[in-house]
Amino acid sequence: MGYFFRLEAFPDKDTVLVYKNFVIILAVVSLAALLLTQAAIHQSPEFLEGRFLTLLAIDVALIAIFAVLVVIMMTRLIMAWRRGVLGTRLSLRLSGVFFVSSLLPVVLLYALSADGIFRNIESWFSTPLGRAFEKGERFG
Questions:
Q1: What are the pLDDT digits (tens) for 35-64?
Q2: Which of 72, 64, 1, 4 is nearest to 29 (CA)?
Q3: What phi, psi does 87 have (nearest 5°)?
Q4: Please, are residues 57 and 65 in contact by the beta-carbon 8 Å criterion?
Q5: Of 73, 66, 103, residue with least CA distance to 88
Q6: CA–CA dist 21, 13 (Å, integer)
Q7: What are phi and psi of 6, to 5 degrees?
Q8: How many CA atoms are closer than 13 Å to the CA of 82, on its beta-carbon side?
Q9: Can you give the pTM of this predicted structure?
Q10: Sign of dihedral through CA atoms 96, 99, 105, 109?
Q11: Cα 39 to Cα 73: distance, rounded to the nearest angstrom
């Protein structure tokens, strides 16, 4: 575990090997969680009943682990930049461009889906529906 939290600009080969193996294991677990989630969605509701919290816990744990890995790697990159290591400015710029280019579609998708959901919910309680409720109350 000591390899994991050693924050050096240039890790030794053992540390790189540990990271590679860890990322491979995380990718396999992520794929398994994805397949289980997909199976749970396409199966009957009984299939999902007992497994929902387990799948949610696995997904949250994977997100947290990936976030920790990103923070560790960015910390290493910033440390190398402060030391003046050749190529770190370019790496920081490319990382920033990748971050912004991946964040833009996520924000856009969230905004559009939230707007669609709110419009759909708003249509449930619109005036014609309110009139139908009033007519139903008068009839009953």
A1: 887 877 777 666 667 777 888 888 888 889
A2: 64
A3: 95, -5
A4: no
A5: 73
A6: 12
A7: -80, 115
A8: 8
A9: 0.59
A10: negative
A11: 33
